[in-house]
Specification:
11 helices; OB fold (Dihydrolipoamide Acetyltransferase, E2P); 3 domains
Amino acid sequence: METKLVITNLKYNDNNKCVSAYFENDEIIELNTIEDNLINSVYIGKVENIVPSINAAFINIGIGEDCYFSLKDNQSIPYVNEKKDNKLKIGDEILVQVSKEAGKKKPAVVTSNIAFTGKYVVITYGNTKIGISKKLSKNYHERFENLGGKFANDLYGIVFRTNSVNARDEDIFSEIRELEGRLNKLLNNYKHRSCYSKLISGITEYEQFILRCDTSQMDFSVVTDNVDIYENLKNNNPNYNLRLYEDDYPLFKLYNLESSLKKALSKKVWLKSGAFLYIEHTEAMTVIDVNSGKYSTKKKEEAYLKINIEAAKEVARQLRLRNISGICIVDFIDMEREEDQNELMKQLRSFIKKDPVGATLVDITKLNLVEITRKRIKKPLYEQFASISSIQEQSFDDIEK
């Protein structure tokens, strides 16, 4: 499978946004804006409030709104000032890392379990356990438990990422040592920094994407017309094909990114069969309705299964493309045969399993409504392009196929 990451400026409404677009065999799978990334940034924060009823505190890191901090999930708190006890109090200054962006009605989330992410492993301060990616079969567990055991310590734990499967032991060891050095540098210096200081900036969207890809095992390339981004990636000694686009014809037009954006902001998504999805965002969840549309046949049960499976594949793609998170309810076309329902669930499970963010197929109700949950990492696409999403119904819903 040929995969490609395109990084360029996308023009719309006389504005420019730098975006990254990921393609698999020429089909767009992900589209995100490239902005100053708050995720994984490390700050000195101040405790502004403690709410025992929800077992949480709220931390000011100097970005405006206070951030949510779980007391249950953060047992090893790195304080800036010496304390006689380990009890968190209002006014304390602590080292935190941003783990989730703010939502419309939810604050950003910070943690004191500082993580440093590499291509093969993640090392985690405050959590000294050895972890293995859920995507790796148990056949690999013994190898990684043995590798992790060689680095057992009271300072940090290690999580082996999916990419580590094809890596040599010495490459994994080298990366652990490099990440360990970065952690030690942080721990040696943070107590000398002032409150609200940003000690580490989060890596960009495209850098995160490249880190999670096993570029050594896939036909992967990156093309960009941004010289600064090209030089940044080039300096990291990439093991993939990196190209600076210098032709006169705009890169965003070459890959039809404007059209792809309009379709990704539209409520209606046409399928090749003539059926379509209708996607609606609410405060509580995202609802996706599968409609048979222009598809017509006498063999309804067979047709419904065919449409539903086609829709299931597109639902999985739309979750990634639109960066939909939280609860998603999919209303597939009703099917009477239980074996058809089981086949649909089997296919849908296989489609969403490929999602690197982490999507879970929860269940199907008696009303044939399927519930999917997806981890929130970044703002959904319609929020990233909020300035134009409000006009989607006027112009974008007319775009077909």
